[in-house]
Every structure is written in C-alpha cells, then in structure tokens.
Amino acid sequence: MNVSLTLHEKPCDWADLITDLDRYVTRLTAEWTDRDPGEGLGAALLRRADESSAGLLLTAHASEPDSPKGARLGYCVIVPLADPVTGMETPFIAALEVDRNYRHRGLARSMVSAVTAEMKRRGHPELAARAGHNDDALISMGERWGFVRSHEVMVLQP
Counting C-beta atoms within 10 Å of the first and last residue's C-beta, which end of the chain has fewer, N or C? Predict the structure, then answer.
C-alpha cells in the first residue's frame, strides 16, 4: 500500500475533514454518554491542535494506482491534555481514523509512529490515548503498540 503521511504545520480548514471530525466526535460521544456533543467540535479540535506544541494534525493520502490520487485515507488529531494540578501538557490522541477500506494494513500504526516521532522532536516524550475499561480490543492494540496503562480515572456516578 503506497500512502503518504502529511504533517500539517499550518491551520487546516478543509470542510470535508471538519465534517468527518464532527461525525467522529458524534459517534465517539455516543459511546461514552447520552449527551449531544453539540456543533463545531471538528473545527474546535483542529484549533486546539494548532494552538500548542503538544498538538498536531497528520493525514494519510493514497499514492497508489488503484486509489484516487491524493484521496485521504485517514487522519490523526493530537491535542494537548493539561494536567489540572501541574499544568503540564501531554499530547493526546483526540481522533484517529482510517478509511474502512484501508483498515488492518498498518496505517493507524504508521500514523501513531509518525506522531510519536514528531512529538519527541518537539520535546514531548509521551503520547496519551484513552480506551474504555471494557474495550479489550483497543486496549490490547494500544499495548501491542507500546502504550501502558497509567493514572486510572475513577468516576462516581449518582
């Protein structure tokens, strides 16, 4: 699979990417809560990514003959996650998606590797992500990629 990864150094306002991110946020939010995520979260994620050295946008594009040249196959949006006590920012995978037709080929792993290298270059040695406590497949994948569980968050529900 011939794919080019692009790290976007300047703010990106692609309408189709923002639409995709809005769908992603809506779908993810539905998995975690019954609340409506509201409007404009795709654009808000991209703004957050642009505002900090702990944020970035990486896209993957087709560069093979059987795919439309330049078609976006995936994206990874990193935003800063600030510790409420120390104020330290850790790069956090807010969105990671690969086109359904290109999954299980190592593209997500390649994007995470590229993001990890860029964050280290920027002075951020760690990369955070989240997975639901029952999402064994996602947890297992993260652990295969080198992620470790840290800082369990407990929620007291009424």
Answer: C
